[in-house]
Design goal:
The chain is α/β, with parallel strands linked by helices. It has 17 helices and 21 strands. A hairpin with a 2-residue loop joins strand 17 and strand 18. The two termini are about 40 Å apart. Its cofactor is Mg(2+).
Length: about 550
């Protein structure tokens, strides 16, 4: 056994591990930890590396709650970390009057266990825990927070993360995810809970497991988004990507009067191992290949895919011959904005994250609607006063903010199906609608450039260089203005990022990822359509976007 020269000594590390194992109520993670300890004592280097990583820090609680790999130690998702998080949240809520907390969970490994551990902690703290009856979509939990008049909500989910991950998402009583300073205040209480033995946390089994009433109400509210006289024919292939959206999605379609979707059988039942996909995110290459194969075979009108907790929605449409293509998040965002205006959505502003396409600004302005930009994430979008519709390019859409103040992949899917059915009645398709929007508002071409770094210091260096030596032109386009988002000029909360506005309506936004050691760059160029020459405008936009992309990629080398 070799003593480490960086961080705690191996002796101290082993002592930390043994102390953690002594309080871990989970046989699996305790056994895993004891095996790592024994292997480290035997001098096995890889075991010590893993043990050090598990105890190298603590999963950080932020506006997205907790998210990480399942395993032992404070830097993993496990029952100890979850119970400490629940105790910290309980202290935060008790200081503000207490109340009820509704708890939902998906079908990932340990989600049900983490949810019921949280209920025991909340009950022991004198709160009123209400647990959803089974694994259900995140939008159902977001709906339940306000529908039940709760002080807070917790959703145990890692959304579209890899199978080995899980997470803990927190909503406050307004039905929105937390934003500063609540995240820091809750994190402070979690740290206090973690500084004491786990046995000091009071537990109680007096909680309520809800029936299907909340789910029934959610389904009824979503189905009511489609008016009674709307056309109902649409041949939809659907996949929940082994997640929890399937049952709820089918119920919504049935209640709204649409035909049952054509299931992708191999992906329909919840499975925490996600066996048919490398990564359970509909944006990832190959994730919806089974759905596309099914759509070709049955001659479908469209494909709808939800991510595993069903808060995101992806859409694919037929092209020429047997080809199909998945729409980008920005394309779906623009289509929903247009469709909601066509169908007479209630007055109020539209909103988008600042990294999403500006096309909806033009669509909304033409209808006399205001558009708001927010920081990335629905914790910001959902807080726009009077919001009528909000979206972000990462497949997130909020089409019914009066009921769900978060992205909702099921209600968004319903409106997309209604739209396709109506277009079909008119002898048109989705590409025709996109062409019409481009002709009226210009071609808005978007893409991303990102880079992952093993040394996080590289990220800080790149951001510092952009601030101190910004470019005067990118891809042949002059830089007209630069906005340091740490000191924003348009009322946004400060965040680490840079926004560059270029000639011709192009823009670049650069920001470090909040969850990975990556820099992400979001690019958009705009090309007007002159004389109906849409193909020419699209070609020009693609060429200009490629030039800008090459220029940005050079920053990250």
């Amino acid at each position: 056994m070799i003593e480490s020269t960086g961080g705690p000594t191996t002796t101290d590390l082993l002592a930390h591990g043994r102390a953690w194992a002594a309080q871990d109520p989970d046989d699996r993670t305790r056994t895993e930890l004891l095996a790592l300890i024994a292997a480290t004592e035997a001098g096995e280097g890889p075991a010590e590396v893993e043990l050090r990583d598990a105890f190298s820090g603590r999963l950080e609680f932020g506006t997205a709650g907790l998210r990480g790999r399942i395993g032992p130690g404070p830097n993993r998702m496990n029952r100890v970390v979850v119970m400490q998080a629940a105790a910290g949240l309980a202290s935060y809520l008790q200081a503000r009057g207490g109340g009820a907390v509704v708890i939902g969970y998906d079908a990932r490994h340990n989600s049900s266990v983490f949810a019921h551990d949280s209920a025991a902690v909340f009950a022991g703290a004198g709160l009123t825990p209400l647990v959803l009856p089974r694994a259900l979509p995140t939008p159902v939990l977001a709906y339940a927070v306000r529908h039940l008049g709760c002080a807070a909500g917790v959703m145990v989910t890692a959304s579209h993360n890899p199978p080995q991950d899980n997470g803990y998402k927190v909503y406050l009583g307004d039905g929105s995810q937390i934003v500063p300073p609540a995240d820091a205040e809750i994190s402070e209480q979690i740290a206090l809970a973690a500084s004491r033995p786990l046995g000091d946390i009071s537990l109680d089994d007096e909680w309520t497991t809800l029936g299907d009433d909340v789910l029934d109400d959610y389904v009824r509210q979503v189905a009511a988004l489609v008016p009674g006289l709307a056309t109902r024919h649409a041949r939809v292939v659907y996949t929940p990507l082994h997640g929890v959206g399937g049952e709820t999605f089918e119920r919504v379609l049935e209640q709204a009067g649409f035909p049952a979707p054509i299931r992708v059988d191999a992906q329909f039942e919840p499975d925490p191992d996600f066996p048919t996909v490398d990564f359970p995110n509909p944006e990832e290459p190959g994730a919806i290949d089974l759905a596309l194969d099914t759509a070709r075979r049955v001659g479908a009108d469209m494909v709808i895919a939800n991510d595993p907790d069903a808060d995101r929605c992806a859409m694919a449409v037929p092209g020429q011959g047997t080809s199909w293509r998945m729409l980008t998040g920005d394309e779906v965002g623009a289509l929903l904005a247009w469709w909601m205006l066509e169908r007479g959505t209630h007055t109020g502003p539209f909103a988008r994250s600042l990294v999403s396409s500006s096309l909806i600004d033009s669509i909304a302005a033409a209808a006399g609607r205001e558009t708001r930009q927010t920081l990335t994430g629905f914790k910001w979008i959902a807080r726009v006063p009077g919001l009528a519709y909000g979206y972000e390019e990462a497949l997130g859409y909020c089409v019914d903010p009066a009921q769900v103040r978060d992205k909702d992949g099921i209600s968004a899917a319903l409106l997309l199906i209604e739209m396709v059915a109506a277009l079909t009645d008119e002898g048109r398709n989705v590409d025709d609608a996109l062409d019409a929007l481009a002709t009226e508002h210009g071609v808005h071409a978007t893409t991303q450039v990102s880079a992952r770094f093993s040394d996080p210091g590289r990220i800080a260096d790149i951001m510092a260089r952009l601030r101190t030596s910004p470019p005067v032109a990118v891809g042949g386009l002059d830089v007209l203005s630069i906005d340091d988002l740490e000191r924003p000029t348009d009322g946004l909360p400060p965040t680490d990022g840079m926004r560059l506005l270029l000639a011709g309506g192009a823009r670049i936004i650069v920001r470090p990822s909040g969850t990975e050691p990556k820099i992400k760059c979001y690019l958009e160029v705009v090309e007007s359509v002159e004389g109906g020459r849409l193909g020419q405008a699209r070609a020009a936009a693609a060429a200009r976007l490629a030039d800008v992309r090459d220029g940005v990629a050079a920053w990250l080398e």
